[in-house]
Every structure is written in C-alpha cells, then in structure tokens.
Write a structure and sequence with these properties.
With 351 residues, this protein is of the alpha/beta class. It contains 7 helices and 9 strands. It has a 6-stranded mixed beta sheet with strand order 1-3-2-4-5-6, sandwiched between helices. About 11% of the residues have low confidence.
C-alpha cells in the first residue's frame, strides 16, 4: 500500500488543478447533448449497492449514460459492437474536503453526477469503440484515505473493493453470457482492478476470456502477478497494460525510491521499449472539449517506471505548468486506445 500512498502525496499538489479541470468539464458538458446521468434515488436501507438495479451502474448497455457518448468527428463512422465487454473501474471522485466520511455514499446524487460527467464521459467512453461498457458505482474510498496509515486505510479500501467484487460477480452471473472481457481502470480503480484480476483471472478458467487489462494511472509492479505478464505489442492478449504520465524530464522523488519495476507500456507504440516516439504517432487526444479530437497532442517515451510526455500541444499550453499529467493518463491517448481496442480484440478472436 505504501507505493500507492506516496504516489498520491504527489497528487495532492494537483488536487486544485483537478478540481478546476472538473469544473471546466461540467461547464463544457452543459452545452452539449449527451446522455444524462440516472439521478433517480432508490430506496436503499442497507447502504449497499444492489447491482440488479441499473441505478447502481454508472455505465451499463441497458441504459443511456455518458459512456455511450462518441466525439462528434467519429459519429459518422461509428458502429456499435456488443461482442466484447469492458468492465471499467473509475478513479477517485470523492474529494470533498469537508465530508468526514471515508467511503462514498452510493446514493449521493451530486457525487454520482460528478462521476458520470467526468470520468464516465471522458474515460469510459473510449472503450465503446468495440465493446459493451459496464462501470459499477461503488463506495469508493475518500481521497484522504491514501494518506492514512495501513492500519486505518485498509478497511476503507476493502469496502470499496467489496463493491467491485460484488458487481463483477453479478456481471458474470447475469450479464456476461460468455463474452470475452477487458478490465479497464484508472487511479483508485486500478488499485481494485489489479486485485480483481489476481483473484478472478490468474490461474482460473476465466483467464481464457481475458482480452487484456488496461490498468492505468497507478503503478503495477511487474512481479504483482505470478503468471499474467505485461503486453509486449499492440496485438498481445491475456496481458496487462499500464502507465503513469509525467512531463518529460521529471521524476518525482518517491518514484526514484521505488524498489519494484513497474509495467510501463507506451500507448503510441504499445511496447515497453524506451525510445522516444514522436507526437506524429499520437492519433489524437480528447481534452476539455469532448467533441474535439486534438491530433498529435503529446509525444511519449518510457523512462524507467513512468511514461514521459511532451507538454500537451494545445492552445494556452503555456498555462499548463503541471509536471504530473495524471488527470490526462487516458485522455492524452484517447484515439490510440480506441484504435488499439479494435486491433487487440481482432487478435483475440484469431486465437
């Protein structure tokens, strides 16, 4: 757990930026026609999510939600595909400083709307290119949990994971119907996603259905899994993809102190080699304007345990003074991820 806590100490400096970015996202969404969040509050005496109820899914193919959104330039060529499922675990959106709770209230309408109009719209939507998208609501641990000692934090992360586990078991029993599966996650979601893969896929029959896992935004040590390996190229399957994004030349002190080698895949080449890759290979990012694809937004190279990128090539980039690009881990490579899904799924079916 220590490796995750030190990572989030660095994120504390980015919290204000995250908040401002979220406000911009919500404002930009307000003028677009996108599927609205399901805001109906259900009777929930236990405080536990009942995954038979669509209200407890932030994304689900049986309802309209922001994960169904497609950037405007792609709509004319978009064709929905339901042959593969993505189980997406969203990052921490429970960041309200004045809230004393350690785990989110599953029926918090304001928090659910924040989640839907940020990570579900801007991150989960990347996976609708070739898949049905499922994203369970869960009692995520508050942002402050990453700063607490293990003796305090473990119970709250376990509560969050228990929801993810229950949602996944419901999904397997009632929704999967034999389809191949992709596990995708960001930040806190990756903490739970890696644990889910270790418990349900590694050494289990279910591994045969694993197309791949995009575990982004937190370090995944190369020795975390005993059998499952990192993806070596764009067509590898049954493997794990991960990266953490920082400005080129910047290595936080806590990363210098990491003892384990992390899985770091360059999303411009889908390899782990360390050569610099030009922004010409970047097929496009989706930033605050969801309906605009920004081509060649960053270059990228693997540097030891992290991914280095250039400063985002967008208007006003001189104002982009952060060196930790955690919030853009997915968005800076939106089109590369979207296209890789198609490639990797094709490779899976050929096998």
């Amino acid at each position: 757990m220590k490796i995750y806590k030190t990572y989030f100490l660095n994120r504390l400096a980015s919290l204000l930026f995250y908040t401002l970015f979220s406000i911009v996202i919500l404002q930009s969404c307000s003028n677009k026609t996108i599927p609205s969040a399901n805001l109906q509050k259900e009777e929930n005496l236990s405080g536990l999510p009942a995954y038979s109820n669509l209200s407890y899914w932030a994304a689900h193919p049986w309802k309209k939600d922001p994960s169904d959104s497609v950037p405007a330039p792609l709509i004319s060529t978009y064709t929905a595909d339901s042959t593969v499922d993505v189980f997406f675990i969203y990052p921490t959106t429970f960041t309200e400083e004045n809230d004393p709770a350690w785990n989110a209230n599953i029926d918090d309408i304001k928090l659910n709307l924040k989640t839907d109009q940020s990570t579900i719209l801007y991150q989960a939507s990347v996976f609708n290119a070739s898949c049905r998208v499922f994203a369970p609501r869960y009692r995520q641990a508050h942002f402050r949990t990453f700063f607490a000692p293990d003796s305090v934090s473990k119970i709250y992360f376990d509560i969050a994971y228990q929801d993810i586990k229950n949602a996944f078991e419901y999904y397997l029993s009632h929704l999967n119907a034999g389809r191949p599966i992709i596990i995708a996650s960001h930040s806190q979601g990756t903490l739970h996603g890696a644990r889910l893969i270790k418990e349900y896929f590694e050494g289990k029959n279910l591994y045969n259905k694993l197309v791949c896992a995009y575990l982004i935004g937190l370090p995944v040590p190369q020795n975390y899994f005993s059998e499952i390996r990192s993806c070596k190229d764009s067509t590898s399957t049954g493997c794990v993809i991960s990266w953490r994004t920082f400005k080129s030349g910047y290595v936080p002190d806590y990363i210098k102190e990491e003892k384990n080698n992390s899985i770091v895949v360059n999303p411009l080449t889908w390899t782990m080699t360390e050569e610099a890759v030009s922004s010409e290979k970047n097929r496009g990012g989706v930033l605050k304007n969801f309906n605009k694809i920004v081509p060649h937004v960053v270059s990228a190279r693997v540097h030891q345990n992290i991914l280095w990128t250039s400063k985002p090539n967008v208007f006003g980039k001189f104002l982009f003074f952060k060196k930790n690009f955690h919030i853009g881990d997915i968005n800076l490579f939106y089109m590369n991820i979207r296209e890789n899904l198609v490639t990797r799924i094709g490779a899976f079916w050929k096998q």
